[in-house]
Amino acid sequence: MLGFWGLIMKRSVCDPEAFLQIYRVNGAYSKSASYSVLKGSRPFDLAGERSEKIHSAQRRLVARAYSMESTMNLESQVDELVIPLLKKLDDVAFSKHIIDLGYLLQLFAFDVIGAISFSKPYGFVSSGSDSFGSDEKFFARLARSLNSAAWLMHVGWFFRLHQKLVLPLIGNLLAINERNGFFFHFAQREVQTRKDQGGNDKDIVGQLSKVQQTKKELDDLSIAYMMTSNVFAGSDTTSITLRAIFLYLIRHPNALSKLRSELQGRQALGKLSSIATAAEAETCPYLQAVIYESMRLFSPVAFMLDRDVPVEGMTICGHHVPGGTVVGTSPWAIHLAPQVWGNDVEEFRPERWLDCEDPGTLRRFFFAFGGGTRTCIGRNISWLEIEKLVATLVMRYNFKLADDAKITEDSGVLVFLKGLRVQVTRLED
Ligand code: HEM
Questions:
Q1: Which candidate among 101, 140, 195, 210 keeps its CA 20 to 30 Å from the CA of 270?
Q2: Quick one: which of 393, 428, 406, 395 has its CA closest to 100?
Q3: Cα 301 to ligand 1 centre (Å)
């Protein structure tokens, strides 16, 4: 019966009270059938798992490896990757060439995932490419898979039909299945290599291997599934955010100069290193506000995070919504609700995070990393990368959009921001 209601009724919710009810931490609404498309046949999949009970048991096994403390232990690995990025940008500034900053940031984010997951930086930034030898380019493959999920999540019946009939008889026709195919095999190989050849004990595979010693249910296969999520969910999301931040800063010179003077002020006091540490960046309020505001206006995740209304139903704006209905909110919808953000909701105004009486209230509606029990497990990793890189690059360079730059958006599960071609100049040391 519940499934029937879900099938015929789906409600996009933007009412702030209803939003808080759906994505609360206690008594969370469970994920809807559309997530089966992400999960496929994976027995260990935090993002796609629909059962709250299984999800919470699995999340407990891996949570520590993604905690703030564990992430901070990996900061030096990220710093090592910032160095080739700066070298690349210095060369570009010197040669006065135009560069696709968006692509460079994507290469960087992927290198970071490799380093913190498997102690394996892929060297994408240094080589300037996301290809492994003769293989198809990695990012194109990822994007195809994500775009396939975007439409299939609306027609789960088609996905199930494909899995039951087409897959065994004809073969795979859906790019989303690469999540359990190509990307899973990639992650599995990397986990095995990491285990055979060793690495930094503090990387994520190292930490999960430690958990494995006492929790046998976290077998090698589960670790490989978890690392597939890192590869699949960890680089595009972060690089889209970085692209959006730099684009907003380029388009809002006042915000940029305010940010730069905050950073330079800290630097003059010896409180900000030339490669900023996360701890230093955390103490820069305007920097933090710029990140929040950019992610509010340009959230990498675009889809409605579907949840099932429990049997007793719920009330939205005085209307009863029966149990089994699929409800959900997209970050793009709640981030543009004037009841929460005010009438200047479409303006890029980092000050809103600093002026408001209670920033905690705004943060309750900040949905870029999802909400409730299913919030992003990689948030600490991404935030560390983002705050470090934005502070470091803003102190060192000025970016100007190239005359022929054409910014476009390509929207599916994620909203890809493309065309960030820029001129780079070094600021005076
Ligand atoms: C700016 C960067 C990122 C953004 C905006 C982002 C966004 C999100 C969102 C909105 C969700 C909730 C999805 C839902 O409810 O359906 C989510 C979940 C998840 N993310 Fe991220 N993510 C980011 C970075 C990362 C990174 C770096 C990793 C891994 C290293 C990662 C791994 C995951 C996983 C495994 C889940 C499922 C968590 C669970 O349900 O327990 N994400 N992310």
A1: 101
A2: 406
A3: 9
pLDDT digits (tens, 9 = 90+) for 195-220: 999 988 999 999 999 999 999 999 99
C-alpha 238 – ligand 1 centre gap (Å): 10
Give strand pairing partners of 99.
Answer: 422
pLDDT (tens digit, 9 = 90+) per residue, 239-294?
Answer: 999 999 999 999 999 999 999 999 999 999 999 999 999 999 999 999 999 999 99
* Fold assignment, 2-421: Cytochrome p450 (1.10.630)
Residue 399, pLDDT > 80, answer yes
Going by C-alpha positions, the residue among 341, 363, 343 that lies closest to residue 352 is 341
Q: Is 376 annotated as a binding residue?
A: yes
Cα gap 151→267, rounded to integer Å: 47
Ligand 1 binding site (Cβ under 6 Å of any ligand atom): 46-47, 59, 229-230, 233-234, 237-238, 241, 300-301, 305, 368-370, 374, 376-378, 381-382
Ligand 1, atom 6, lies closest to the CA of 369
Confidence tier at 8 by pLDDT (50, 70, 90)? low
For residue 4, pLDDT over 80 is answered with no
Q: Which of 13, 37, 208, 376 to mutate to test the pocket of ligand 1 (most atoms within 8 A of CB)?
A: 376
For the chain, the domains span 2-421
Those residues whose C-beta lies under 8 Å from the C-beta of residue 275, and which sit 6 or more positions away, are 79, 82, 83, 86, 388, 392
